[in-house]
Amino acid sequence: DEISRKYQVDLSKGLTNTRAAEILAQDGPNALTPPPTIPEWVKFCRQLFGGFSILLWIGAILCFLAYSIQAAMEEEPANDNLYLGVVLAAVVIVTGCFSYYQEAKSSKIMDSFKNMVPQQALVIREGEKMQINAENVVVGDLVEVRGGDRIPADLRVISSHGCKVDNSSLTGESEPQTRSPEFTHENPLETRNICFFSTNCVEGTARGIVISTGDRTVMGRIASLASGLEVGRTPIAMEIEHFIQIITGVAVFLGMSFFILSLILGYTWLEAVIFLIGIIVANVPEGLLATVTVCLTLTAKRMARKNCLVKNLEAVETLGSTSTICSDKTGTLTQNRMTVAHMWFDNQIHEADTTEDQSGATFDKRSPTWTALARIAGLCNRAVFKAGQDKIPISKKDTAGDASESALLKCIELSCGSVQKMRDRNPKVTEIPFNSTNKYQLSIHEPEDKPSGHVLVMKGAPERILDRCSTILLQGQEVPLDEEMRDAFQNAYLELGGLGERVLGFCLFYLPEDQFPRGFKFDADEVNFPVTNLCFVGLMSMIDPPRAAVPDAVGKCRSAGIKVIMVTGDHPITAKAIAKGVGIISEGNETVEDIAIRLNIPINQVNPREAKACVVHGSDLKDMTSEHLDEILKNHTEIVFARTSPQQKLIIVEGCQRQGAIVAVTGDGVNDSPALKKADIGIAMGISGSDVSKQAADMILLDDNFASIVTGVEEGRLIFDNLKKSIAYTLTSNIPEITPFLLFIIANIPLPLGTVTILCIDLGTDMVPAISLAYEAAESDIMKRQPRNPKTDKLVNQRLISMAYGQIGMIQALGGFFTYFVILAENGFLPNTLLGIRLEWDDRSKNDLEDSYGQEWTYEQRKVVEFTCHTAFFASIVVVQWADLIICKTRRNSVFQQGMKNKILIFGLLEETALAAFLSYCPGMGVALRMYPLKVTWWFCAFPYSLLIFVYDEVRKLLLRRYPGGECAPPGCPPPSLCSGRTGSAPFVLAPPSSPLRSPTAPGLPGDASTLLAEPWALESCLESSLRGVGGGADFPLAALSPPTQSLSLSLSLSLSHTHRHLSLSLSLSHTHTHTHTHTHAERTSSY
Q1: Whether the predicted pLDDT of 1067 surpasses 50
Q2: What pLDDT was estimated at residue 232?
Q3: Residue 397 gets which letter from DSSP?
Q4: Taking a C-beta distance cutoff of 8 angstroms, is the pair 931, 800 a contact?
Q5: Which of 541, 567, 589 lies at the terminal end of a domain, its last residue?
Q6: Which positions are annotated as active-site residues?
Q7: Which H or E run includes 1026?
Q8: Residue 528 or residue 451, greater confidence
Q9: Residues 87, 759: contact at Cβ < 8 Å?
Q10: Which of 314, 616, 737, 830 is the most exposed place for a label (fewest CB within 10 A)?
Q11: Would you say residue 1008 lies in a domain?
């Protein structure tokens, strides 16, 4: 009556059409407001003016400015700056269009996923049932739902018959929930009398009054929670910004330095400005924007082939830097289908087959008790297979009915053949459906083995079924149910329940033929047959089993230093069982509860830090402070959050991000969408995922498989490595491009390299080789490294700049100048005559300039020689870039170890050579690009420098492998062979016998162990290395574990092996607070 008054509705006839129209006009259609979409022109502008493009636009504007100044100063200004400005603008526009096209393609695939709102709803208005478009359902409508329908709005149930709904997309619970008019819980998500918009009714029927529509539904509120979150920048976007700052800093520093120097050397103010602009533009790597875009696109395509659809190109790299994955359970880690896992009969627990194709070994089916159990499970069961699935494997067939009954149906069909034929041979006479009061389901059949009798079969809550039994079936014989058998039942029930499985009990009873002959009228309402003193047959337990590939994927994540946290709406026991099954909680690691049980003490007496694993209930999380949550995330390596709400998933993600972690979140339900949006990278499920979750995610797993994430992580790490290699390759040629301009200003020599030839390098010969590095195979340790620390491990760091600019770049510049001086010397201008000659050389009116041998040169002749020098300098850069490309293939390994298997890279080498030859020798290039043919011998001028680069880098890498402290650690750090301890239980593998760091001085120990004892810093480095990556990948110096006034407390257990030459260390560290690392070497050594 209260509902009827509140919503002004007749509970039998529903609303009037007039009233419904008024409410629809007032509230609007029953649909979720689509998230605010970014206009296409804004997306396009972002591609044109975002990140790296800004640098090129600034370069283009400066070029146009320089050309304008020259046009104002000179009668016939050179067009170089104009060409350069136009080309830079063209590069930005072309790459912008390309990136926009890639993103638009992903958006189109996204649009094809739309599947959120049900099309039709069955409403009762003015006493008549009618099918209407679900968008026209209004608050107060009387709605009827049946098994297979999608709930059209939030409903308050007023009547139901065996109604069950699948709330997994909302709460994460895979078990269907019963719906009835009774109010059972304060929490709307837990109570039985409310059905939620867009969840599915799996069986039965129900009537309800609509209480919320559209954005006001629970689903709508969660969707708006996701759309209200601000999205942070991706790590690669921050890396590119950092790179732009470095390049801009270098360019402005060089530009200003030479601007001041030009004024000191007596150049006019306008000439100095032209030089300033020229140097800044020369520092801009024009081809790099296209290279980065193409590299990311190639990786996105590679990932699409491996079932990962990337919506945003930059998300590719984010996945590679991920240090924490917060994964949903249902449908992501598990198969999202209930499956029979165990059975208990004949006083034994039998394991069923839960593999995805259910092809594994099974139990002995010859027992007569199993035959009886299978018959009860098949007959006392309302689930049926949907029609038209004859060629589909049984385990993959769709069913109509409750998830648990469907699991039983498939299990019996696989074990005993057609259940439908079994039902035909044993026709049903009557049944009592399951209800929350009785907690059992019962049916009576005419059995094939008793031509004139009836058999009663029953299933339900095990303890309720056992209470109705007085005997038990063992080996096909009925025996009294004594205390011993009750204890055996209790132990089996607790064991199966402890595995997080849903357990059902089964019993039967052959009704006396004299009292219940064939044709007897059974009454299911006024029960006129016995329902006690039955015969207990056995138990069957069900679980939503893990996907086959998940345990291996979790193991790979762990070895890659990635922490996997389970976040689910399911029950803590089930969540813990699945976490153990997939390896999120590894074998031997205990929770606080496990320790309390083992020691037989109350939970509050256990020190939480002793437990490596932790299961946190959503109700505890609700009252938890941020500091407490941070402590849990920091102190426990293996964490499961159960019974969490969407808001709490968000809190967990924010907590991980506070730890400095790059967080990936996986999920398929609407309940996951706020966390997907907040995460650094959201990963939605393509098959089972809701539309809202796909909208919020950055990436979609087309096969719904958690294992695909590991592929994504590897690809993300590979793209970061390869981008680094591409950038190192591209930046190196900046030095031989800038130095000619600098010497032109300082030494007043003829310009060695022109603007057009610089463009031919950056946008011509260097492009394909730089892109080819994106195809470089992963180095062997890529999934063994700790995740990248975004604060310290930059895309472009000091080491890369020093390598590209300070070492290889300088050798390349020397090669170019050597070629330049050789050509001018061959033409009569020896190097000593070139200094200070620039003004005369560029004077159009001077046609009698003498060379070193007294020969006179006209302006035109001088310019032909100058442009030939430009072409030769360009060719020399191509030659030295051969070696640069080959050395950029690896970071540490010798090129001989890595090999030349990258066919695209070999093609890149041939392409840049062919393009250089074409530009040099093609007729007409002298007019079009001012590039002139070269003597064959001039190509060989740079060969020694190319060889020098290759030899120099191979020696450098050899020294790095021998003495790695030079690159990866502060001076005095031992090699990685000494520091390869990782979090987890892996042993520390120590230096090989040949290592120069071995110290065999300590008597009675193999050399490896004595290294640690004789060199205390080696132990410290090992410990530091092992602590890297704890808590989201941050580096913790060991000294920070203990204040200066205390000594570090270590408990070591040593395991020495003479034969394998390694030492295993089991470490226990305790600390109270941190301090800065200010010890001197001597102080640190003395503390051990």
Answers
A1: no
A2: 61
A3: -
A4: no
A5: 541
A6: 328
A7: helix 1016-1027
A8: 528
A9: yes
A10: 830
A11: no
Helical residues (DSSP H) of 426-560, grouped into ranges: 462-467, 483-498, 550-559
Q: Look at the chain and report how many structural domains it folds into.
A: 4
Q: The pTM is what?
A: 0.68
Closest by Cα among 570, 559, 375 to 459:
375
What pLDDT score does 119 carry? 66
Token pair, residue 819, equals: 């070629």
CATH code at 41? 2.70.150.10
Residue 1058, in any domain of the structure: no
Percent share of the chain, pLDDT over 70: 84
Token pair for 46: 């972002």
Q: How far apart are CA 1021 and CA 1010, in angstroms?
A: 15
pLDDT in tens, 976-1025: 333 333 333 333 333 333 333 333 333 333 333 333 333 333 333 333 33
Q: 422 pLDDT exceeds 70?
A: yes
CA-based radius of gyration for the chain: 38
Residue ranges in 265-367 assigned as alpha helix (H): 269-282, 288-305, 315-320
Torsion of CA 975, 980, 983, 988, to 10 degrees: -110
29 three-class SS = coil
At residue 622 the predicted structure's pLDDT band, cuts being 50, 70 and 90, is: confident
Give yes or no for a contact between 454 and 445, defined as CB atoms under 8 angstroms apart: yes
Angle 492-329-641 from CA coordinates, rounded to 5°? 85
Q: Are residues 727 and 750 in the same domain?
A: yes
Q: pLDDT tens-digit profile of 197-252?
A: 988 888 888 999 999 998 899 988 887 776 665 556 667 777 877 887 888 888 88
Q: How far apart are CA 605 and CA 597, in angstroms?
A: 12
Say whether both 38 and 185 belong to one domain: yes
- Identify whether residues 902 and 815 lie together within a single domain: yes
Helix ranges restricted to H, 600-672:
618-622, 626-635, 646-658
Q: What is the pLDDT of residues 921-962, one digit of tens each?
A: 998 887 778 889 999 999 999 999 999 999 999 999 999 888
Show the tokens assigned to 676: 């997907």
Q: Which of 103, 102, 107, 136 is nearest to 120 (CA)?
A: 136
Considering only CA atoms, which of 533, 406, 530, 527 is closest in space to residue 465? Answer: 533
Average pLDDT of the residues of the chain: 81
**Shared-domain flag, residues 868 and 890:** yes
Vertex 703 angle, CA 701 and 706, to 5°: 65
- Regarding whether 956 and 906 lie in a shared domain, the answer is yes
In angstroms, the CA 553 to CA 557 distance is 6
For residues 526 and 405, give the distance between their C-alpha atoms in angstroms, rounded to a whole number.
26
The answer to whether 470 and 533 have CB atoms below 8 angstroms apart is yes
Q: Can you name the residues that pair with 160 across neighbouring β-strands? A: 206
Q: What SS3 state is found at 478?
A: strand
pLDDT in the model for residue 279: 79
Phi-psi region of 346 (alpha: psi -120 to 50; beta: other; left: phi over 0): left
My answer on whether 121 and 179 are in the same domain is: yes
Distances in Å between the alpha carbon of 691 and those of 150, 174, 795? 14, 19, 35
* Contact present, 135 and 30 (Cβ < 8 Å): yes
List, in sequence order, the alpha helices (H) in 733-888: 734-746, 755-760, 767-772, 798-801, 809-826, 831-834, 838-841, 859-887
Angle between the 646-658 and 218-227 helix axes, to the nearest 10 degrees? 20
pLDDT band at residue 84 using 50, 70 and 90 as cut-offs = confident
Mean pLDDT of 590-608: 89
Three-state SS for 536? strand
Instruction: Give the pLDDT score at 109.
Output: 54
Helix axes 483-498, 572-582, angle to 10 degrees: 70
Distance from the Cα of residue 292 to its chain's centroid? 20
**pLDDT at position 113:** 47
- 539 pLDDT above the threshold of 90: yes
Domain-embedded: residue 562: yes
Same domain assignment for residues 371 and 506: yes
Find residue 457's DSSP bridge partners: 443, 508
Q: Could you list the residue range(s) of the whole structural domain that residue 682 is in?
A: 308-333+548-704
